[in-house]
Request: fold
Amino acid sequence: MEYLEALGQILREIRVDAGLRREDCLRALSREYLGAVERGRQSISITKLRALCECLEVMPSLVLFAAEARLAALKLEEYQATQERMINDYIANKTLRNEDGAAATHGVRGRHAEKTRKAVQSLKLGGLTKIEIARKLGIGTTTVDRHWHHAQDNDQDT
Reply:
């Protein structure tokens, strides 16, 4: 079973259990579009899923949770137990959080740039030339040059 098929089945079951016809969900999706989603033949955007879930009075995360449990061939209770362990691990490792992360605002390239800058400055203080630093770190001389001048700016500030 594919993800879209499982998602569509869950959405259809929720709609039918709520006693709603496809026509009752027209404010969220057209009748044809909803039918294609329920048959797993059409993907659905997060925005449209959210609108449909509002119509069905269910949270989108619960719909996705149920679809993933079905794909894993697990009962909801079993899947919930596995997910709770994973969520707890993600929270403990700060991989998953609901507040802005300072590290994420710089992005991966920003973190790499900071490491590179520190490495260039350290090697510069060790007496290496720009070309030697570039070879040692496996970066271009332009990058070394940018961080080299940044090191001079920091030296002048102190």
